[in-house]
User: What shape does this take?
Amino acid sequence: LFNGRLTFDSFALRNFLTQMLEDAAPWNDIVGGLLGGLDAVGALDFLLRFIEALLPKLMPGINDSFIVPIFGQLPGFWGLVPDADYESAKAYLLDPVIHKDLIKLIDDYHYNVFNKVPQMVDAAVKDGVNFYVLSNYNIYGAPVGPNARVHTDDGLPTIYTSGGATCALLGETLPPGYSQAVACGHSHLSADGFIDASTCIRPEQTWFFKDLHHISFFSDDCLQFLLWLLEADGTLTVRSNAEYPQFMAWDKADGSLSAVR
Assistant: This one.
């Protein structure tokens, strides 16, 4: 949104809505069947391309009346913009005169905090801090924009919540014969073929939870895992406890955790 890159992916849209309505029978079947029928005859893709063609004319008004005043002037949202998109987003959305104080503030955070997180983590660990990362995946986020098929926790992309994991697109796996990017002596590949955790800033202290939503970390198994981390003496790794491997699947029915297979 901050770069005006609004595109629509019919595959992601169908799966996003199916995911949202999974507990809303019979609407899940009705909406799924309707979208499936439209997609089968090409009507869904035609509609999405039609909307995309209109957006260049609509976006200036949307930005001025909605995006900028509601989201674009909140520094916290700029703190979520990836480095590769940051400068282009500022140029697209902000006025260098009107928003000069905001730009000064968000630049300070982006270049002195956001871009230095790995070094800050290393310094904290060196000072004796136990640092752990918990990241969820295999859930569709909003089906808008070029990243509509990236793994998320239903809000935030897994690549960011994990500190840099390499992820296949949703609906796909990593390429056949894929070898993990960083040869560190331990395997950091998920058994389902979705994730390579070797590229994380702390792969030995990063756990992944399949099918677990952003605000669902409250089952007994999840809380026991958190207590294990918090109460441990010394630094734990993804190999410290066989009950808590690096990749765990969450069962929505009973809230249990088990190894991804």
User: Anything to note?
Assistant: The mean pLDDT is 94. The radius of gyration is 21 Å. Strands lie at 133-137, 166-167, 195-196, 206-210, 247-250, 257-259. The CA atoms of residues 80 and 134 lie 18 Å apart.
